[in-house]
From TrEMBL:
Keyword tags: Membrane, Transmembrane, Transmembrane helix
Organism: Winogradskyella poriferorum
Key word Membrane present: yes
Tree of life domain: Bacteria
Membrane-traversing stretches: 12-33, 39-60, 72-90, 102-124, 145-163, 194-212
Protein's UniProt name: DUF1361 domain-containing protein
Amino acid sequence: METIKTLIQSKFKTLSLVIVALTFSIIALMVRIKLNKSFFYLFLVWNVFLAIIPYTITMYLNTKQNLNKLKFGFWFLVWLAFLPNAPYIVTDLIHIRVGNNTWLWLDVLVVLSFALSGLLIFYLSLLDMQKLTALYFKKIPIETSTTFIIFLCGFGVYLGRFLRYNSWEIISNPQVLISDVFEIMFSPFQNSDAWLFTLGFSGFLVVGYWMVKNFKLSN
């Protein structure tokens, strides 16, 4: 309990920022529901809940002082499976075209606020996992592995957005998921849209990562 209290105190500023961002997103959504009398964007609440899971995992791992490498590896894989859910919210911008033109600006504000909250959680969790990985596996090249993880996230977002896979289907439906992944990997020309999206979205996330990383280092 004392460890959790210390962690919250040390991350108070960061947690406050996350809470403010999420609170604004929820309020904007509630205003949108009231004015439009539509619950269309309510799915964003579920999406942001999924986005919080990887950050919750890194917060939990920060409270564990003597975790062995095997247990850390298990939590790392769970974290990696859920991590794409955070930047995934950016792709919810495609739903704006369905919205009411009268309140189009409000639709943009709602979805964008959730997307930015998702990106904030994504980068915070990624930076936390960097420190944890360096602690347990000192010989791993952190920056190279981070870039690879971001690439995997870009691919994960593609699987979620266009093939409609969920994180838990790694367990519940692995055969079909693995089959589709192999199809994309070994038939790149027939699946050029998957590769283009993965590279483009990953590039977007990498640029954001370096911006956040350099901003943190300068403060």
